Structures are given as structure tokens and as C-alpha cells.
Amino acid sequence: MKPLVLDGESLTPELIAEVSEYNRPVVLSSEARKRIDACRKMVEELVDGGQVVYGVTTGFGKFSDVVISPENAAQLQVNLIRSHACAVGRPMSEPAVRALMLLRANALCKGHSGITMATLQLLIHCINKRVYPVVPEQGSLGASGDLAPLSHLVLVLIGEGEAYYQGKRLQGAQALARAGLGPITLQAKEGLALINGTQVMTSIGTLAYVKATRLARIADVIAAMTLETLHGIPDAFAEEVQLARPYPEQIGVARNLRTLLQGSALTTRQGQLRVQDAYSLRCLPQVHGATRQVLGYTRDKLGIEINAATDNPLLFPEKALVVSGGNFHGQPIAFAMDFLKIGMSELANISERRTERLVNPALSGGLPAFLSHNPGLGSGLMIMQYVSASLVSENKVLCHPASVDSIPSSAGQEDHVSMGTTAARHAEQVINNVAKVLAIELICAAEAADFVGEGGLAPATKVLYDCLRAIVPKVLEDRSISAEIERTAAMLLSGDWLKDVEAVSGPLY
């Protein structure tokens, strides 16, 4: 696979996914190297000149008024990492850690952080040789950067902490050695440059966003199949209706549905069976389209953040300028993550209502109760709707906005924080729940298709039906289906089935 060239300017969510999911290798651009060297030279001149610069020749946070002698500048950085590495909770996933390392490297490429080339190169080597620090996911306030979690990443670079290598959890120095690498000695400013940033919230948030975009698109296909099995009415998706309320996202979703339903023998027209469908079918463009609006907002903010310098202080060698600012504050990402989880939760809310219509004989238009092949003796898919309802309810709790909270820290010096990392973690949980809710709808829709005649499905939805049936056989008699829900959800999150559908339907919005 061709290496991804990091330049601090052109990283995208999709490129991050290539590194985090498929281990695409990474190299530094020549321009980034020049910027990094120029900035490092400036740091050394500041230290040699005895200038007072936050985090370089002073302590941190409330200790910013304590001046550190030049001979202690390196020890200051090591002490910073050790003292700040107190995050707790389960480790971040390996894909999230890969994204985290990539984002930290990309931020350093901008040449405003004062890192040495040796330190940045070791970070790049760890990405490429698959040495992944153990980073506990809890403990960040989302301002002053993701200090505690990022410190665990840096511990490994100095030969401490823990890391995964070739599937084994090892001491940091041991993991480096097995990969043919050695630890670095932090120089002035480097510890602060490595941990003072928003990369934990942004890495989790970016991967959550990538998965969310896949779910939003496959949700249109799943909903189209459900509409078919309920003999729904596609007239509501007419272009004229959408142009009368011209949200581009609503128009795009309606176009998807018209494309997906082409060739279906199961849909009906207005007045044929009923005049209009329930909202969970008729309002698909409006609800799914609104979620696409949220995704657009989230992408815009992530696109800026993943190519930003977010540590403090920032150095501008071309102007001989050092500025203590606040780019480490995660408020933009906190808002985006809260918005993302709310927008995605609605995909699950409306999906669960469609599942209810599939299994409820009072709403399904003649399908057997709970899609059971032996109603009464067999419960069929009754409890799958319970599970879906449980996940939807859990999402409502997780969607409480983290960004409305703030707790002062560092003796009042850091008196407003974003809680952006909490928002990102909750967004990730919500999106994983949405995948399971959509998986349940898909399994139920496929079972309903068996009753109404899967041969009548549109060519595009038939592809998805066949994909599902390769891993979830027909539920002809009661069985535990938990593992099959999980496998289906994983496939939806991967985006692979969407590619199969688009091979028949053409590109979807």
C-alpha cells in the first residue's frame, strides 16, 4: 500500500480510516521536515537565551509562574509525562490508538510545536511497525488538551508504560525492542508538545464519524427493504415533494430511495392498499436527511481539527514569535460530538419503529405475529424488538450533552473545560448501538421478505438480502440470535455490504 504523506494540512477522515483500519504506512513530507527543524531550532535558542516561556522554562498550569533552569528543562518534560499519565478505564481500541498517533504526528508536522525530528520519527515508526501504546480512555477534561490519555502514549516513546505488539501486551521498552526500536530522551518543550492537544477526542470522534456515514447510507437500503415488505408507498419520495422543501440532504435521501426501489414488485401506489404510510416509512427523506445534515456539520469541524496545531505555547519561527494561546480547548469538537450522537440516535429511533411495524401483527399488514413460522409455540423475532427498544433507550441517556458541563481544574487556572473527550466516547457508544438497531431491522426485514416473497425485492435490496443470508440463515425455528446480530452490526459498520449494493444500484448519496 502506498504510504500516506503527512504534511499537517491535507489529512481527511477517510485517510485516517485507511491508517487505523487497514494499517496504511505513513511518511513525513519534505516540507514538514523543514518546518519541524526550523521550529526546533527556535526552541533551543529560547532555552539557551534563558527566556521565560510557558512549559519550556516554567512549570505547568498553576505552576506557570515557577521558572525552571535550562539544565532542568529536559527533566521537566519527563516529570510532566510521568505525573500526567494517570488516566483510567479500559484501553482505547487499537484502531483508535492508531488514529490517535497519526493525528498527533500530523499536528506536529505543522511546525509550531518545537518537537525534535527524532521524537516525531519514533512516533511514525511506532505507527508503521504497529507498536500501539496502551491508552486508558477516561480522564480527559477536553481542555489543556487530552493530557492524561496522551501521556500514556508518550510513556512508551520514553521506554515506559505499556504497549501492544503482535497481539501481546508488553512493557513499553520491551515492545519497542521487539519492533527494532529504541526509546528517546525528551528535550525541552517535547513532553508538552506531545500531550497538549485534542487528538484523543478527535481520533475517537473521527472514527465514530466514519462509521456513522456508513450507517447513514446503509440505513437507506435497510429502510427501503422494510418498506417493500410492508407494501409501502414510494410516491412520498417523489422529486416534486422534496423540491418543495429543498434541503439538499432530504433530496439526496429521497433520490436514494427511488433508486433502491426501482424494479420492486412489492411496493404499492397511493390508494392501492392505503392512502399513505406511517411516518417511519413516509418521512424517511426528512428524518434520514436531517441526520445527513448533522454529519455534514461534524465533518466540517473534524476537517479543521485534524489539520490543526492544538498545543500550547505555539511557536512561529518566521516571526520569532511565541504565543501562549488556547487552541487546546476542545469546545468545537465537544459540540460536534454531542450533535453527532443526537443525529445518529434518530436513525435508531426511527429504525426501531420500523422493526415494531414488521413484528406487530396489528401494524404489519398480514405478516405473521413476530415473524414466527409457528406462532404461539415459537416466539419468532419478538424479543429482537425488545433489544432494539433497549438500545434506543440507552442512546437517549448517552445523548445528554457532555459539552454543557465544565469543572474548574489546576487551582482555578484552567477554569473552563469542554468535556469533549467524554462527548466523543459517548458518540462512539451511540453509533455502535445504532449499528445493532439497524442490524435488528435488517434481520426482521429479511425474514418478512421470506413471507412476502424475496423474489419480489428490488435488485438493489435483493443484494443486501443475499449478503445478510450469507451470515444469518432464515429463522425457521427459535434459536439464539445474539451472535448473528453482532456479526450483522459489524458488517454494517465496515461498509462492505454498501459497496455490494452500489455495484447494482450505482453510487448512492
Automatic annotation (TrEMBL):
Q: Which EC main class describes this enzyme?
A: lyase
Q: Corresponding gene?
A: hutH
Which top-rank group of organisms is this from?
Answer: Bacteria
Give a single Pfam family match: Lyase_aromatic
From the UniProt record, give the pathway where this protein acts.
Amino-acid degradation; L-histidine degradation into L-glutamate; N-formimidoyl-L-glutamate from L-histidine: step 1/3
Q: Give EC number(s), comma-separated.
A: 4.3.1.3
Membership in a protein family = Belongs to the PAL/histidase family.
Q: Which PROSITE patterns match?
A: PAL_HISTIDASE
Which parts of the sequence carry 2,3-didehydroalanine (Ser)? 144
Q: 5-imidazolinone (Ala-Gly) crosslink: positions?
A: 143-145
Tell me the classification of the organism that encodes this protein.
Bacteria, Bacillati, Bacillota, Bacilli, Bacillales
Q: Which UniProt keywords apply?
A: Cytoplasm, Histidine metabolism, Lyase
Reactions catalysed: L-histidine = trans-urocanate + NH4(+)
Q: Which residues form a coiled coil?
A: none
Give its localization: Cytoplasm
- Keyword tRNA processing: yes or no? no
Q: How is it modified after translation?
A: Contains an active site 4-methylidene-imidazol-5-one (MIO), which is formed autocatalytically by cyclization and dehydration of residues Ala-Ser-Gly.
One Gene Ontology BP term is:
L-histidine catabolic process to glutamate and formate
What GO annotations for molecular function exist for this entry?
histidine ammonia-lyase activity
List the SUPFAM superfamilies hit by this protein, alphabetically. L-aspartase-like (SSF48557)
Keyword match rRNA-binding: no
Supply the name of the protein. Answer: Histidine ammonia-lyase
- Any single Gene Ontology cellular-component annotation: cytoplasm
